[in-house]
Amino acid sequence: MSRREAPRGRYLGFVRLLGVGKRYGRGPWVLRDLSLDVSGLVVLTGGNGSGKSTLLRIVAGVTCPTEGRVVDRPASVGYVPERFPSDVRMSVRDYLRHMSAIRGASGEVLERLGFRGSMTAPMATLSKGNTQKVALAQAFAATDLLVLDEPFSGLDTAASVALVEMLAERTAVVADHEGHLPSAQVVSLSGAHVTIEFSRASGLGELSDLDGVRSVEPRGTGARVLVEPAHSDTVLAEALRLGCSVRSVRS
Ligand SMILES: Nc1ncnc2c1ncn2[C@@H]1O[C@H](COP(=O)(O)OP(=O)(O)OP(=O)(O)O)[C@@H](O)[C@H]1O
């Protein structure tokens, strides 16, 4: 689909990912071959380390994909990272003034979220929930696309309800493992895996039970085992201890 044909519908923002993959340095692939059209509300789910924050950073333009492309990213993108910088010395008021100067006002969002902290306190001294409200206030000043990493984290119930309402009719990609947005399109990330091929495999049952093993598929006298990257070294060591012979390891 060309840029002109992008399905904006009633939502302002739209962004498209084409065959996106990401690895850090020479590490294992965190994401691979991911294509996605974002219009309206999209929730990312997946276990720890499955690549949700990585994908959000790519959508926000904070980091580049290793392969593939992000196209049609709109000009005005608001981003709340998983960890908001904790060492900002500016007061809440000065910080929001600074962000307003960059892309518009945002004090109203603080009110809707029920911010009770001091506007003159340095950001670094705010509670977790109040910091999150300020982070959301600066992001919501963006008009087109919101990229929110666990935005409900630390929010009280009233603020969570308000945030759900504020997200209606916005285009947003949100990592949320608590199910606050049941009507959103869900994209589930399983994370990249390491494939270990064994020419001879024994103790397949024991291999299946190891942490991080996603699947064990017998192949002749051997097996193909898919393992989460963080566990591949221990699985490999355990398989060798069980007497398996390794043919190849691919990430
Ligand atoms: N800057 C980095 N350098 C190297 N590896 C990284 C970096 N950032 C993330 N990773 C690795 O990428 C993988 C995915 O991490 P990411 O934070 O995207 O996952 P996540 O799904 O958001 O996890 P969680 O639910 O625990 O927050 C992990 O194995 C992580 O260690």
TrEMBL record:
InterPro entries attached to this UniProt entry: AAA+_ATPase, ABC_transporter-like_ATP-bd, ABC_Transporter_VariousFunc, P-loop_NTPase
Keyword Transport: yes
Stored SUPFAM superfamilies: P-loop containing nucleoside triphosphate hydrolases (SSF52540)
Top-rank taxon, per record: Bacteria
Keywords associated with the record: ATP-binding, Nucleotide-binding, Transport
Coiled coil ranges: none
Residues covered by the ABC transporter domain: 15-223
A GO MF label: ATP binding
Protein name: ABC transporter ATP-binding protein
